[in-house]
Specification:
This protein is mostly beta strands and 436 residues long. The protein contains 1 helix and 28 strands. The protein has one helix at 57-60, and strands spanning 39-42, 45-48, 71-72, 78-84, 105-110, 116-117, 122-125, 128-132, 137-138, 143-147, 159-162, 174-179, 185-191, 201-203, 211-213, 247-248, 266-272, 293-298, 304-305, 309-313, 316-320, 325-326, 331-335, 348-352, 364-370, 373-380, 390-394, 397-402.
Length: 436
């Protein structure tokens, strides 16, 4: 990355969006409203509007060979986030004409913490390629929407693309797939009869959760092309991490009921008792109290209720976990303090202990309790006084070891020890590139 380029902090779904475009001449942005006339916000920067903003599949075929200022998307970075097979008479592409063909769409999201190129990525329905994407950088936590036809207008997101031959999504069942230019499968989703009806099928939580009937459906039409399921803009979905300093519950799914989390469902994976100068909570203020943290990883594939769980340090209750259902591979990070926390990584809920965690530097016992039942426990000794965290040797498993024996960073709150996202999988044996 050019040393003169700026790193732009983004509050929302992604922790950082790394702006690394050639020359760094473009103006940073979060929406097109911040750009000058004739420009659109794409990949976190204001750029001149081009035909790529509303492209056909014919035009897209010429795009992949163009020189890109962002790297090609890798498996785990680009995912299908929403699919609408039955527009049911609704004008989702905003061209003023409701069409059962043109208003079908597939929404694609960038989960990486930096812009990625979608050049050459194919959108496949069944065994047929419906669109090859043009040369386009998609910002961290942002989306591109591919419509079945028409002339999309006013659709939020980094770009609205058009499959000139239509998407031809079956209303009853089907498969949608993203495939890289090299032929690697980036993501796949399937749907069945549950899709039938006037609603889309969307991931919730955004980008990382399982597909389900659009969460906002209440007996009527529900879809959100280019926007979060709550209708707000990516990447933060209108939820700021400092709106409520006690906890950010964006990743908690409200359900009528789910089984309470018990032994083996939620694991204590990391404890930082001695932050040193490491600003763990990202509020810009290194603190030996506020930057203490405890990280918990959900390992149950089925939703489990967090409410009723207590976090205790040496037998003293420090925090009641918020109510809500959570499933693997989502995580919770409890900090000792802070009022303006950095945005959490995708799939992570942040909480703050009201009176701090008070983790002893030279040894302690951290327990996750449901009543008198120990759900999980992590015990550490004098090694806690080393300006780095104690982490399990394998994310979610293994014996506690010093974080520095596995990675370069002193700690990795809300992420795998390697620095990867829990939501996209931890890479064994890799080292973190996150530094103080």
């Amino acid at each position: 990355m050019n040393s003169m380029c700026k790193v732009k902090k983004v509050t929302g779904l992604m922790l950082w969006a790394l702006v690394s475009l050639a020359g760094c001449r473009e103006t940073p942005c979060e929406s097109s409203a911040e750009c000058s006339a004739g420009e659109q916000c794409r990949g976190g920067l204001c750029r001149a509007s081009t035909a790529a903003d509303v492209a056909s599949s014919a035009g897209a075929l010429a795009g992949p060979d163009a020189t890109m200022a962002c790297d090609p998307a890798l498996p785990g970075q680009l995912v299908i986030n929403e699919v609408l097979a039955d527009p049911a008479g609704h004008d989702t592409n905003g061209d003023g004409v409701a069409s059962s063909k043109d208003d079908e769409y597939v929404e694609v999201m960038n989960l990486a913490t930096f812009p990625v190129s979608v050049a050459g990525v194919a959108v496949r329905v069944g065994q047929s390629t419906r669109l090859v994407m043009p040369a386009l950088c998609v910002g961290s936590g942002h989306v591109v929407v591919v419509f079945g036809g028409g002339a999309p207008k006013g659709v939020p997101g980094d770009a609205a693309l058009v499959a000139s031959g239509g998407l031809r999504l079956s209303n009853s069942m089907g498969q949608v797939q993203l495939m890289s230019k090299a032929g690697a499968v980036l993501d796949t989703m399937t749907y069945d009869g549950e899709q039938g009806g006037s609603h889309s099928f969307a991931r919730f939580p955004e980008g990382t959760g399982p597909f389900q009937v659009h969460p906002t459906v209440k007996g009527g039409f529900a879809a959100s092309p280019g926007a979060c399921v709550n209708g707000e803009a990516f990447p933060d979905c209108g939820i700021k991490p400092d709106d409520d300093p006690e906890f950010d519950d964006i990743w908690l799914i409200e359900k009528e009921s789910c089984a309470p989390a018990g032994k083996g469902d939620l694991i204590l994976t990391e404890v930082l008792a001695d932050p040193g100068k490491f600003d763990a909570n990202g509020d810009g203020i290194p603190s030996t109290k506020s930057d203490e943290f405890v990280e918990l990883l959900m390992t149950s594939p089925a939703p489990r209720e967090l409410g009723g769980l207590e976090l205790r340090v040496n037998g003293v209750k420090k925090l009641d976990l918020p109510y809500g259902c959570m499933s693997a591979p989502l995580a919770v990070v409890a900090f000792g303090g802070g009022t303006k926390l950095a945005a959490p990584a995708p799939g992570v809920t942040q909480v703050v202990a009201p009176k701090g965690l008070s983790l002893p530097n030279k040894g302690g016992t951290v327990s996750l309790m449901r009543g008198d039942v120990v759900v999980d426990q992590l015990v550490y000794g004098p090694e806690g006084d080393k300006d780095q965290s104690i982490v399990r040797s394998e994310d979610g498993a293994g014996a506690p070891v010093l974080h520095g024996t596995l990675a370069k960073a002193p700690a990795s709150p809300g992420r795998c020890t390697s620095g990867e996202l829990f939501a996209t999988g931890c890479k064994a044996g890799s080292t973190s590139n996150v530094t103080e």
